[in-house]
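Support reply, case 0932

Customer input (verbatim):
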Amino acid sequence: MKDLDINEMRQAIHKLASTLPIGISIRSFINEDRSIDYELLKPMLKGVPVKTYYMSRETYEVFEDRETAECMDQVQLAVDLYVKEQGKWPVAEGDSRGKISYFLIQNYLRTIPEETMYVDKEQGLVSFSPPTSD
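Our regenerated output:
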């Protein structure tokens, strides 16, 4: 057993993702309940974390609770469907930060999240932080 904080877990996942052979997806490390499969990570982590962490299947972000990972997946899928059907990002007109308009995607959501989310228009990924412009 090993005591890893969430940042150490995120770093391990990032490192793992960059070393996976072609054809192997990081999704292989996500259990049905969105918890991370530590057995597959044991060699890289040199142990099994004490705490259970969860990962979004759509964005591969790591969280301390399953509900946040599920919420992010729901919003990512809704954004993807909206873009596919409408041909544009579901952000408020004139918003340059990519803040998602839940009003625009409400028909694609089971529940409206309480937290503000953003979409990175270059990568198409949803996040709780506005995209950084380089």
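We compared this against your earlier run and they match. Two observations from our side: Residues 6-55 form one domain. The chain has a mean pLDDT of 91. Please reopen the case if you see a mismatch on your end.
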